[in-house]
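Need fresh eyes. Consider my entry:
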Amino acid sequence: MSRHKHLYLGPYVECTYKKATRTAYVFGCTNTKCKKHPKERGPDAGGKFCSECASPNGKIPFQVNDRPDAAEITDENLFEIESEESDEVLWLAPNVRREGDPRPKFDDDLEIHLDLQRSNPDSEIAWLKKAFAKELQALKAEYATVMVKWGLHQYFM
């Protein structure tokens, strides 16, 4: 599997996660003394009984960070700019072009030259707020903070 470097220049949405957890379950050995008893979230065990101690397998609860699915919330109209820097912040950028889109078009697989003197970050931010108002409203219901900013992101996919 290969990873490709991409650049995004323009308005984006910065969301911070709520400090919320939820209960998730893994199917595994119910004997807490068994070495196969799940100590953290991992793959489910197979079968009705543990292959190590013969105790019954069952659902083991875990607390995990509750992370809303931004793609689902925005109908994939905004995409997640991948980041390994933070598990506290999520960055989203437009995944579709909508009427009045002022962003310059460029293919980041090719050599590029952008004259940034013609960029107008304030108008691009205003455009994103208007063009994606429905998605921003939905994000505000799920995240602690939602802010529209402008900048350059490098990410890998």
Notes: The beta strands are 5-16, 21-29, 57-65, 78-81, 89-94, 145-156. The longest helix spans residues 121-131. The CA atoms of residues 6 and 110 lie 11 Å apart. The chain has two domains: 5-20+67-156, 21-65.
